[in-house]
Amino acid sequence: MDDPASDTTLDSDIEQVLISSEQIQARLQEIAAEVDRDYAGRQVLLVGVLKGAFVLMADLARYLRSPVEFDFMAVSSYGSATQTSGVVRILKDLDLDIAGRHVVLVEDIVDSGLTLNYLLRNLRARGPASLEILSLLVKPDMVRVELPVRYHGFTVPNVFVVGYGLDYAERYRNLPYVGTLKPEIYAHP
Ligand code: IMP
After folding, report:
1. pLDDT at 4 over 70
2. Is the C-beta atom of 136 inside 6 A of ligand 1?
3. 140: pLDDT confidence band, cut at 50, 70 and 90?
4. In which element (H, E) is residue 103 found?
5. Mean of per-residue pLDDT scores for the chain
6. In sequence order, what are the beta bridge partners of 39?
7. How far is ligand 1, taken at its centre, from the CA of residue 111, in Å?
8. pLDDT top residue among 150 and 140
9. Catalytically annotated residues
């Protein structure tokens, strides 16, 4: 076969699996149970931050038992590089008005916290009844910005990770686990 993509898989680019698919799913079930309990009797609006949160939102959605609604925002922060710029641009805004609503902002990862910090200020200005953060992953750098992360899955070291929604140059989002890339992947994108 001449197709250069046919003899490679995404898995072969991974150096180390940091969080397995099973660990992620088990933790999501616990978080969903917490959300169900915390918002019992109240209607929650989950706001996913695209693109990274689409996998997390889809899995979390099916573990929740309360009458949850969903909306999405798309922001740009990283481009194809692995360093945060601190500049956040809203590419797609919410469809729904969140005034008076109980909102949970769902992120894939909080690294420096700059993206969420910006989003929180932006969403608070719209007058929600409450606003909490749910992030699957948190990096220790987050302490640079004080963020009230109400629900979080795992702490990962200060390394670049891919999988479960997280990309490098738009690839690896569909891996069901979180891992690190082999160094040569950065050298030869
Ligand atoms: P922050 O503004 O530094 O907190 O970065 C937040 C965003 O950067 C996340 O929503 C991700 O899209 C991206 N990001 C941060 N760390 C990583 C990583 O290790 N792998 C892939 N994307 C990341």
Report:
1. no
2. no
3. confident
4. strand 102-110
5. 89
6. none
7. 5
8. 150
9. 111
List the one residue out of 75, 95, 98 whose CA is nearest residue 85. 75
What is the length of the chain? Answer: 189
Beta carbon of 64 within 6 Å of any ligand 1 atom: no
Nearest partner of 108 among 156, 38, 37, 171, judged by Cα: 156
* Residue 187 in this model has a pLDDT that exceeds 60: yes
Q: What is the mean pLDDT of residues 131-145?
A: 84
Q: What share of the chain is helix, strand, coil (3-state, %, to 5)?
A: 30, 30, 40
Whether the CB of 166 sits within 6 Å of ligand 1: yes
Cβ–Cβ < 8 Å for 134, 105 = yes
For residue 148 the two structure tokens come to 């009230």
Letter for the amino acid at 83? Q
Taking the model in full, what pTM does it have? 0.90
CB 161 less than 6 A from any atom of ligand 1? yes
Q: Separation of 108 CA from ligand 1 center, angstroms?
A: 8
82 CA to centre of ligand 1 in angstroms = 8
Is residue 1 very low, low, confident or very high in pLDDT (cuts 50, 70, 90)? very low
**Where does the pLDDT of residue 69 fall: very low under 50, low under 70, confident under 90, or very high at 90 and above?**
very high
Mutate to test the pocket of ligand 1, among 111, 142, 162 (most ligand atoms within 8 A of CB): 111
Whether residue 58 contacts residue 38, with contact meaning beta carbons closer than 8 Å, is answered with no
| Average pLDDT, integer, range 105-122 | 90
What single-letter amino acid sits at 26? A
Write the residue with the smallest CA distance to atom 15 of ligand 1: 111
